[in-house]
Write a structure and sequence with these properties.
single chain; 157 residues; alpha+beta; 7 strands; 37% helix; 25% strand; elongated
C-alpha cells in the first residue's frame, strides 16, 4: 500500500493520536496504525486512509466490501454496534460508524481520512486497481480504435 507506516497508539493519550492522524494527513498515503486500547494487551490494527485516496478506491471498486467479513477481528464489532459518540483528539475528531466498523476522521468539520479494517483497505485497493487498469476513457478508446483501423491486417504485416 504505497507508504506504510506502523505506529502504536495508546488511548487516551491525545498527543499520540493527534500526531499519528496529522502524519497520515501529511503523507497522503495509507498509514497502518495499531491501537492499544486502555486495559487491553491486544492491539487493534487499522489502516488510516486519506479521504481522497479512499474516494478514488471506492470510485473504481466495482462492488462494496463484503459485510460478513467487515469487523470480524474487532471484539466490539462482534458484540454489537458500539455507541457512535465523537471523540476529539486535538484538532481531529473521530466519528465511529455503527455499521461497517469504519471510523471517519475529521479536522475543522471536514473528513480528512477514514480508519478501515486492514483487510477491507487491501481489498478496496486491489479491486480499484484491477478495474482501473482495464478502463479506457472515451477519448482514449476512440484514439486506440483509430490506431487499430490504420494497421495492416495481420497476414499482410
Amino acid at each position: 500500500m504505497g507508504i506504510e507506516i506502523n505506529a502504536v497508539v495508546s488511548y487516551p493519550i491525545n498527543d499520540e493520536v493527534e500526531r499519528v492522524l496529522g502524519l497520515a494527513e501529511a503523507v497522503g498515503e495509507p498509514v497502518t496504525v495499531t491501537f492499544v486500547w486502555e486495559g487491553s494487551d491486544k492491539g487493534e490494527r487499522s489502516v488510516l486512509v486519506p479521504a481522497a485516496t479512499l474516494a478514488l478506491w471506492e470510485h473504481w471498486a466495482p462492488t462494496v466490501y463484503p459485510a460478513s467479513d467487515a469487523g470480524e477481528e474487532h471484539g466490539a464489532a462482534a458484540e454489537g454496534p458500539e455507541l457512535a459518540h465523537p471523540v476529539a483528539y486535538g484538532a481531529f475528531t473521530l466519528f465511529r460508524r455503527r455499521a461497517g466498523g469504519r471510523t471517519a476522521v475529521a479536522r475543522d468539520g471536514v473528513v480528512v481520512a477514514e480508519l478501515l479494517n486492514p483487510d477491507e483497505a487491501h481489498w478496496l485497493q486491489e479491486k480499484a486497481r484491477n478495474v482501473r487498469q482495464g478502463f479506457m476513457d472515451p477519448k482514449q478508446k476512440a484514439a486506440f480504435e483509430e490506431f487499430l483501423a490504420r494497421q495492416a491486417p495481420v497476414g499482410e504485416q
